[in-house]
Amino acid sequence: MLGRKVLRRLDAVEERGGRGDGWTLEHLGLVAADLGAWDFDIAENRVTWSDRVYELFRVASFGHTVEAFIALVHPDDRELMTRTLTRAIEVGPDDWAIEHRLANAPDVHLACRGRVFRDGAGVPVRLAGVVQDVSGRRRAERERRDQDALMRAALESNLFAVVVVEPPGRIIYCNQLAADLLGMSREDLTTHTYDAPKWKHTDVDGSPLPGDQLPFGRVMRTGEPVRDVIHSLERADGRRLIVRVNAAPVKDDQGRTSLVVFSFEDITERRAIEDALRQSQKIEAIGRLAGGVAHDFNNLLTAILSFTSLARRHVHSPNLVLQDLDEIGMASERAAALTRQLLAFGRRDVSRPTVFDARALVAESVRMLGRVVGEHVSIDLKTSPAPCWVRMDEAQLQQVLVNLAVNARDAMVDGGRLSLDVDVYPEEGVVRIRVSDTGIGMDEATLRKAFEPFFTTKPIHEGTGLGLSTCHGIVTNAGGRLTMDSELGCGTRVFVQLPLSDAPVLSSQAPPPSSSTRKVRGRVLVIEDDPSVRTAAVRALRASGFQVIAAASGDEALAVARSQRFDVAVCDVVLPGRSGFDVIAALREEHPDVRVLFVSGYTNELPRAGDDAFLAKPYTPDALDEKVREVLAG
Questions:
Q1: DSSP per-residue letters across 532-566
Q2: CA distance 51 to 109
Q3: In what order do the strands lie in the sheet with 109-118?
Q4: Which residues face 211 on adjacent strands?
Q5: Mapping DSSP to helix (H, G, I), strand (E, B) and coil, where does residue 74 land?
Q6: 475, 435 in Cβ contact below 8 A?
Q7: In whole angstroms, what is the distance from residue 15 CA to residue 558 CA?
Q8: Are 259 and 250 in contact (CB under 8 A)?
């Protein structure tokens, strides 16, 4: 037996004074394992150690009795050592193990393993075993426990909800804030997967969000962290949340993503506040425009009324009547353009990117900006001779210009100059709009905070602190950059850099023949509560060859539908009593195959029209004719 061979070798070592130098196979094994060997002769009460045990116990000698050995054990561990040895000798089991500290070195932990050897009658005669320094392991375990405790404390005290997910998506840990935010217990949460249908992940606007576009899918696909992903999900109680998510991978030795750590926060209320403040800022800007708009509209109405009166006087002079009508038409177009600009600026609906020439939009905005900054601020415009094609929402770029103009005006209390420069850099693939003022400027500390939400240097009730942050968000979402430089007393320069887009593709089809040259058949039901608009629509469609039935309300339209057939319903969205959408839904119960053209002066009704055609007011007779023909042909 190896144990008895070891003991015999120990006896030989002891006979040589405990400092043997014989290298047996057993000795080599003990040295290689960094183990010290010991032997306890029960009858003689004699304890024998190898050299390594002396080193481990930090002593040069001891009394070679079990009492002398136990005296070297830390006082707090002596009772456990005595009890362990006594139990092993008296009742077993024969193999035992214990860890203890040293009296003279409390930070040292030793692991002692031994076996009881018995004679033929089962009487214990000796104990033998090995001892090893496990201080490093215990220290590592303690450090790991401390790190785990520190990490858990950090996660639990975190201001963010934290979730740890392992592929293919199982949640293995969450802090209490995550469980509270999602409306369930921690135990229940860890039985779900991150991309489970239960959460009903969508984009903020409600559109579906594929799994590979969720933060987990993106991290697993790219192996890279994702930052500030905003999407919507549903709590356990069915309430929708908007959350901002950050996610980072934890990789194994082979560089594979083994875990994904998420931190997220509920920004539902914050988004609502920001949206409300942003909308109030638009309203504030529109309020500043009100005086100028009223002035412009009064001028336009004066022109329309004057030329209408002149046309009546010139009824016997056809050439003069035509001139008067042309002037009325141009004034009406200007009024329609001004209305569209205000509606676009004030709307709440989602972005509708289009490709347009930034030069033209900035030039068209100068008049409106003039109303914003007031007569004490002059505006200089300089544009590139080459087209500056960009792709974004026109109304949002207008909002950026208005916000920057408002800031510039507030910085030029005693008047000054606002400069707008639009240039294109094809080699860099960018369009740059520079907005400069001659105002008081900003110091370096203010400039660093300028884009932070809710930061403002204006007095309370005079600024929301969202102007520049809103501009920054709009430009960034369009793939661009917004930068700024300023010095006290030297004004401010804001640079809006947008990606250069390809020019819009113009249709090569020949223009359709005019309505007067085409034959058409079809019955049209016009549902319009405004008498003038209804009369104009009926006359225009009849002049184009349509058979037209008119209704002034939803109830009248439904009464007509019960007795007459028609091919197209032209329906205003805003009607007395019920909406045009409700009227059409009821009408389709009688005529399920009827084709529909919705009309409205509110362009944000377009998404609600769904698959049905939509025509924005104001429209011309030709535009109405073309749209109705398009609906019939489709």
A1: HHHHHHHHHHHHTT-EEEEESSHHHHHHHHTT---
A2: 18
A3: 46-49, 36-41, 124-133, 109-118, 95-101
A4: none
A5: coil
A6: no
A7: 119
A8: yes
Q: How many CB atoms lie within 10 A of CB 142?
A: 11
Strands 523-527 and 547-551: parallel
Contact assessment for residue 410 and residue 467, using Cβ atoms and an 8 Å cutoff:
no
Tens digit of each residue's pLDDT (9 = 90 or more) over 73-120: 999 999 999 999 899 888 888 888 999 999 999 989 999 999 999 988
Q: 531-543 vs 621-633: helix axis angle to the nearest 10?
A: 60
The residue type at 582: D
Burial of 492 (C-beta count, 10 Å sphere; 0-12/13-18/19+): buried
DSSP string of 170-235, one letter each residue? EEEEE-HHHHHHHTS-HHHHTTSBTT-GGG--B-TTS-B--GGGSHHHHHHHHSS-EEEEEEEEE-
Q: What is the pLDDT of residue 516?
A: 44
User: What is the model's pLDDT at position 460?
Assistant: 40
Neighbouring C-beta atoms of residue 227, cutoff 10 Å:
11
pLDDT tens digits along 48-62: 998 899 999 999 988
Question: Do 391 and 355 form a contact (C-beta atoms < 8 A)?
Answer: yes
Query: What's at 25, amino acid-wise?
Result: L
CA–CA gap between residue 134 and residue 100 (Å, rounded): 10
- Give CA–CA dist 97/84, Å, rounded: 8
pLDDT of residue 411: 87
One DSSP character per residue, 88-100 reads HHHT--SEEEEEE
Nearest to 224 by CA among 257, 194, 195: 257
pLDDT of residue 231: 87
pLDDT along the chain (634 residues), means of 10: 43 43 58 82 90 91 91 93 90 87 91 90 90 88 75 70 87 87 87 79 80 83 88 88 90 88 87 72 60 64 78 82 80 69 52 85 86 85 93 85 85 90 93 93 78 55 54 83 88 93 67 48 88 86 91 92 90 88 90 90 66 83 89 85
Instruction: Compute, in degrees rounded to 10, the torsion defined by CA atoms 286, 291, 292, 296.
Output: 110
Helices (H), 414-501: 444-449, 467-477
Q: Sheet with 481-486: list strands edge to edge.
A: 377-383, 416-425, 430-437, 492-499, 481-486
Answering whether pTM is above 0.70, one says: no
CA distance 553 to 601: 17
Which residues are paired to 215 by β-bridges? none
CA atoms within 13 A on the CB side of 312: 5
- What tokens does 276 get? 């409300």
Query: Quick one: angle between helices 318-346 and 394-411, nearest 10?
Result: 80
User: Strands 389-392, 354-357: parallel, antiparallel or unpaired by DSSP?
Assistant: antiparallel
SS3 call for 28: helix
- Measured CA to CA, the distance from residue 113 to residue 119 in angstroms comes to 20
**DSSP per residue, 366-413:** HHHHHHHH-TTEEEEEEE-SS--EEEE-HHHHHHHHHHHHHHHHHH-T
415 phi-psi bin (left φ>0, alpha ψ -120 to 50, beta other):
left
How many residues are recorded in the chain? 634
